[in-house]
Amino acid sequence: MALVFAALAMALSSAPARAQNGLSNPPLDLCVKRAVKGDVARQLFAATARFDCRTRQTSFGPGDFWVIAPVLPKWSSPSMPAAVRTSATTQDRSILYGRYADGVIIALPMAKHEISRHLQLGAIVEQVLPARATPLVQLLWKIEGSGNPRGIVVGAQITEPGESATLNLFMAALYSAFGGLCVALILHNLAMWRALRHPFQLIYCLMVASLAVYALSSSGALAWIWPDLPDLVRVKINYLMLGVSASLALLFARAYFEPEVCAGWLSPVIMLVCGALIASAVMFALLVPWQAFMLQRIFVMSFIGVVALVPPILWRAWTTRSRYFWVVTIAWAAPIIFAGLRVANGLNFINWSFWVDNSTIMAMTSEALLSSFAISYRVRLLSRERDDARVRELAARALADTDPLTGLLNRRSFLARAIGQTGDHVLLIADLDHFKAVNETIGHDGGDEVLRVFARALRASIPAEGLVARIGGEEFAVLLPANRAIDAATILDRLRAERMPFDLTVTASIGASTGPLATDIDWKKLYRRADRALFAAKSEGRDRVRYDLAIAA
């Protein structure tokens, strides 16, 4: 919310020309005159009426100019050097003239390849006029080859060198914090990407990386690292990274939302706007300083597409009930407000301000932090969906492998687990006696309950490593390693002890055999012998256990 209020304060200021341009002193009032042959600095200091103090600087277009600050603030101190600070602009050469009260004029020339050596943090050009016994009373700039995309002399102010050092320290803290934030967010999201592999995570990391490079160039820190770098190259990098960052922000939203949000016409329009952003940035980087004013306008206009795309994307997210609508809305609020301010400033609807000029860093700090939160929020939802899917999968597998009536393994699952085991195993085939009569006596519901009771008795009688399954209507199978075999008679004892529905007496017969289970053929042989033993138990009166005699012998 603080960012929003700051943006509104900048946009609605009643006196923007006198608003705080930097962090300390108010901007100087400037007047402009187009340069003509025969102009002399000393004469122009005395001829302020020849300067235009009303027309916007950008209305003059490109060319050579004289810019004067006819009156300096009363706080100008004759005992201290005067640091004259202006925002970096596109130009070939400049000369700063300072006139003192005793009539002495000092000139400080600066060619365009020397701008980087005078650059302070915040992309502020600083030139220092020496202290003299009399105060500094006027400033005059001669600007040659001004591209004038956003002004001829922009944001001029005068401070003491100590104040300048304080401003640099403040800006260093601001940009260092943003750089550290970028590194932390990239490392964090790359680590998550290695685990989750969602495309929007990589797009986000690229976006934050391009923002870090943008901050390095827009802050002027790049000139501190590489003092011989031409300032125009720094500006080109700045425009390129801003275009790339804005494009990646759109692509991030496209990949982050559910597919239906950007389906249809929205997806190709997003790609078209991204292409326009990159194309305008590349044009600026390749062609400036040629037609700098026009190229800067084209670049600014491409951002109108970004601002215009936000409402339909959010509207589509709202109408499709996207789960990420609210978090993206919050993340986009500050960048869109500040992008609108930058567009308005670029089209001269609002005056230049230090904070508007540096609003991108604040907007992108908000964007980077809140987008990272959005990623974490989506990862949380995806993790929950994955966990729910695993639970459903396990439940489906359990249903596929389990007999729904008794909870034991079904025949398919039993065979899948049994066949292929090494070593000899004991197979018990148990069958309830006279189960048809049980159903006729107490009904099918009662018969189902009898099956459940018998299943519990089987499971309770068998060691944990044993397999128990219902393989037919009232037929059950038990498989144990031969060295962990149990006395099958204990199963019958347990069954006799169970309380049946309506206190009905229910018994079972068991047939057993021992042998290998390495192959399907082994299973068929083992089952045939156990079934033969079961038949013998039935024939001999039921309610008993019989072993396959050939194996038992």
Q: In brief, what are we looking at here?
A:
The chain has helices at residues 2-11, 41-46, 161-196, 199-218, 221-225, 231-256, 266-287, 292-319, 325-346, 354-357, 359-401, 411-418, 435-461, 489-497, 520-539, 549-552, and strands spanning 31-34, 63-69, 82-87, 93-100, 105-111, 119-120, 124-129, 136-146, 154-159, 421-432, 467-470, 475-481, 508-517, 545-547. The chain has 553 residues and is of the alpha+beta class.
Describe the structure.
With 553 residues, the chain is of the alpha+beta class. The protein folds into three domains: 25-163, Immunoglobulin-like (Sandwich), CATH 2.60.40; 173-390, Rhopdopsin 7-helix transmembrane proteins (Up-down Bundle), CATH 1.20.1070; 411-552, 2-Layer Sandwich (Alpha-Beta Plaits). Helix content is 52%, strand content 17%. The strands form three sheets. Strands 1-2-8-4-5 form a five-stranded antiparallel sheet. A five-stranded mixed sheet has the order 11-12-10-13-14, sandwiched between helices. A hairpin with a 3-residue loop joins strand 6 and strand 7. Helix 3 (161-196) packs antiparallel against helix 4, helix 3 runs parallel beside helix 11 and helix 8 runs antiparallel to helix 9. The longest helix has 43 residues, at 359-401. The chain is rod-shaped. The relative contact order is 0.08. Mean pLDDT is 82; it is low at 1-23.
